[in-house]
Amino acid sequence: MNAADSTGATGATVLTGATVLTGATVLAPERQPDGTAIALLGDRIAAVGTEADCRAALRGDGVPDDTVTTEDLTGSTVVPGFVDAHLHPMVMAVFEQQVLLDQVRSIAELNDLLADRARNTPPDETIVGFQLDGEVLAEGRVPTAAELDAVTGGRAVVLLCRDGHHAVGSTAALHRAGLDDPGLVPAGGHVVAGADGAPVGLVGERAVEPLMALMPEVTLDGLVGGIAAWADRLVSQGVTSISAMCQSADEGPAGPAGAMEALGWAALSGDLPFDIQTILITPEPSEVFDLRDPSLHDPARGRRLDAVKLFLDGTLGGRTACMHGPFADHPHERGMRTTDDDEAYRRMEAAHLAGLQICVHAIGDAANRSAAELFDRLLVRHPGRHRHRVEHASVLDDPTIELFARHGITAVVQPINLRSESHWLARRVGLDRLGWTYAFASMARGGVSIAGSSDAPIERTDVLAAMAAAVDRGGQAPEQALTRSEALALFTTGGSFARGTEDELGSLAAGRRADLVVLDADPTDERTDLDAVGVRSTVIAGEVRYRSERPVRPPG
Ligand SMILES: [Zn+2]
């Protein structure tokens, strides 16, 4: 690691020959008390231990001493490359081209972003923003159509709210979508009107669709640029391995627009440096084998298509998570099942018998109990090796945790939810269920393996922020907090186990792929502010993909 500046996801500095990194705190992810050195040879880790151990190992591999490069990392901490076990790469690519609003904290900030975007896009193109959340803005509300008109010169602007069920349109957008004519509002949709009867901007449910239809067409160039942008950000955040959710049919969060995701991902992911597991969202597990060409499945090249995902319920934000009892803030609602037990079992059995990994989306406590019982039925009838998992595992109960542990079901969680949902989470689930929500400690102590992930673009991909959330929880049900070491394990060994790559990735040991992150502080030291830790460099398969002399955490 002796050359180069920041190289990005698509450029790399190859560590030709052998390198010994010395002087660092090494977390493998367990602390290495007497080892402060790592030897790298080609795309592999040759040794972890003392500097003498490392030099001896390279000598044993036939590398002459005088050809070994030494890099002094005194003051740094080296950890395994981070694993993000659940993200949506094609939706990320689409979001990347639009205005991302999740870090906006006031309407004034929003106005700056929109005015900037208006200057830089053709006048007839709709400006689209994602992840608007009025409750986190200083004003405590979403903007009005009049405010959007003023800041963009009357252009068509559509801002989709974080809950996915609401959007705000400018006057031009509402008009083009037909929503300023009460006769044209779709059944099941609503448009908030002012005293004069004219729409004020906010629309809900089925009225969101005509606004979203104004979104500029997704182009190939746009997708290529979007993927390159998020890939650069991920390497700058220390991420070296991902599990990528892709639809192959209408079913899934992107709806019919996502039917081509898997094919697009196959065409566009080839040059990415990450180890990539693709997880297919499909009603027919056998489709995995139809799509299994080398672009998505070539294990020697770090590409695997070996898993399917199905949805048992919706989300807490949309109040569609399937709950045992009603939501505390909406006493007549308890969410819904999106796939019933019979259909879910049919898919699970087909996938299991085909040797595929099953990923079950379950958020509400009733959905998670069903997931646990379905896995119980499946694995009692067809025992055998598997690496099945439940995605989110957001609200749980004791019998569910017990069944997950008994059957070795991994929970793939998103700790950053504790930050993005903190302004409504307790109100929605109620105080009696808050202790069962994102119940990381109960799972860890109960013998359930847990893995960290972002679910991007629903959440941002900043692993260190997610670790901080798993540790501090923003004060919500603090008894469910993880230790710093457990939080690091979520995104290293835990994530790697969830995708079946624990012998290859997620830890620093001789023979493992040389995926590592150099941090400017020890994230497991109680004195370290996790939100201030910077990534100095990211190495993937022995190649420096990112380097920053003065680490700055990028937003997002
Ligand atoms: Zn997801």
Helix/strand layout:
Layout: E1 13-14, E2 18-22, E3 25-26, E4 37-41, E5 44-49, H1 51-60, E6 69-72, E7 77-80, E8 82-87, H2 89-96, E9 99-100, H3 107-119, E10 127-132, H4 145-152, E11 157-161, E12 166-169, H5 171-176, E13 189-193, E14 199-205, H6 208-212, H7 220-236, E15 239-247, H8 261-268, E16 275-281, H9 287-290, E17 303-311, H10 341-353, E18 357-362, H11 365-381, E19 389-392, H12 398-407, E20 410-413, H13 417-420, H14 425-429, H15 431-434, H16 440-445, E21 450-452, H17 463-472, H18 484-498, E22 516-519, E23 535-540, E24 543-547
The structure holds zinc ion (ZN).
The site of zinc ion has 4 residues, from loops.
Bound molecules: zinc ion
Report low-confidence residues grouped into runs of 5 or more: 1-7
CATH class of the largest domain: Alpha Beta
Strand portion: 15-25%
Provide the CATH topology of the largest domain: TIM Barrel
The global form is globular
Number of helical runs? 18
The average pLDDT value, as a whole number, equals 93
Q: Main beta sheet, described?
A: 8 strands, parallel
